[in-house]
Design the sequence.
């Protein structure tokens, strides 16, 4: 009798221990990085003293490579446009302060508007400097990567040219000086 009770107790105890072990959470080794495993995507470009730069991304079916390429290009253009507009707004704030223009004047308003239009035109006419596609994944999708760069001097020149065409005499008189200051401002700007 004692042997039977002892055997049943050992079996129950073994079942409890096995059950407890199976419910213990499994722990993954912790990474020292708060971002987990990261990697640098293909076609990665960064702004430097000479160029504004951006990398665009798109993901979709391999049968739509042309659409993916256009989407990645639009993505890169949106990023570079945002950088350029931010840099231009900072430049205009600095420039208008240095020439003593009051906030909200016609000259400042027109200068900002001409700059935004010019940025849209320049960015809209970009082409890529790098194009790569990933391998096809298990769902039949690919990643598309496109890099674009735009010389900072090109945007400075285009804005100065468009300001020179403006009807405002004060803007025309300052366009050349503004271009020189914009070249220097953009050269020293580093958005990465």
Sequence:
């Amino acid at each position: 009798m004692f042997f039977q009770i002892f055997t049943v107790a050992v079996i129950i105890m073994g079942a409890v221990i096995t059950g407890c072990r199976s419910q213990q959470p499994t722990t993954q080794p912790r990474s020292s990085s708060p971002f987990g495993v990261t990697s640098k995507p293909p076609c990665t470009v960064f702004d430097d003293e000479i160029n504004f730069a951006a990398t665009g991304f798109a993901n979709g079916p391999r049968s739509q490579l042309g659409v993916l390429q256009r989407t990645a290009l639009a993505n890169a253009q949106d990023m570079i446009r945002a950088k350029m507009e931010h840099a231009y707004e900072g430049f205009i704030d600095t420039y208008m302060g240095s020439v003593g223009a009051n906030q909200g004047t016609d000259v400042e308003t027109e200068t900002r508007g001409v700059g935004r239009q010019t940025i849209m035109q320049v960015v809209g006419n970009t082409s890529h400097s790098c194009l790569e596609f990933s391998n096809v994944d298990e769902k039949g999708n690919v990643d598309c990567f496109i890099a674009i760069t735009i010389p900072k001097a090109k945007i400075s020149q285009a804005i100065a040219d468009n300001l020179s065409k403006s009807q405002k005499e004060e803007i025309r008189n300052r366009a050349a000086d503004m271009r020189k200051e914009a070249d220097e401002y953009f050269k020293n700007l580093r958005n990465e």
In short: The mean pLDDT is 78.
